[in-house]
Amino acid sequence: xxxxxxxxxxxxxxxxxxxxxxxxxxLALVLxxxxxxxxxxxxxxxxxxALDYERESLIGADFSGKxxxxxEFTKANLRQSxxxxxxxxxxxxxxxNLEEANLxxxxxxxxxxxxxxxxxxxxxxANLxxxxxxxxxxxxATITGADFTDVLIRxxxxxxxxxxxxxxxxxxxxxxRETLYCP
Length: 183
Description:
Blueprint: H1 7-44, H2 155-162, H3 176-179
C-alpha cells in the first residue's frame, strides 16, 4: 500500500533544502571572493614585499647568497656583515655603515650607495653597474675585479679607487680600471 505524502509537507521540505542550498552557495561565493581578493592583493603588492631594514642594527649579519632585490637598508648599521654573492639589485644602502662588510661577488646593479661607508670592505668581483655611488667612502676597501660600469661617482672618489683598481670581473668580463675610466 502506498502512502501519500502531504503536498504541503513536500513543499516545505523542498523549501528548507532550497534555503540551505542557497546559504551554502552564498557562503561558497563569499569564500571564493575573499580568496580571490587575497590572491589579487598578493600579486599587486609584490613590490611592497621587499625587505625593509631601514635604521636597523645588523652588525655581523649573514646575508650571503640571499636574494635581497629592492631591499631597504637606509642608514642601517651593517658593519662586518656578509653579503657575499647576494643579489642586491636596486637595493638602497643610502648612508649605511658597511665598514668591513663582505660584498664579494655581490650583484649591486642599480643600487643606491650614496653616502654609504665601505671602509675596509671587500668588493672583489662585485658588479656595481649603474649604481649611484656619490659621496660613498671606500677607504681601505678592496675592489679587485669589481665592475663600475655606468656608476655615478665623484671624481675624487674615482681617483682614489683608481689607485687600487685591478683585475677583471669574472661575470661581466670587464676590467675594473676601464670601468672606472682610470688613466
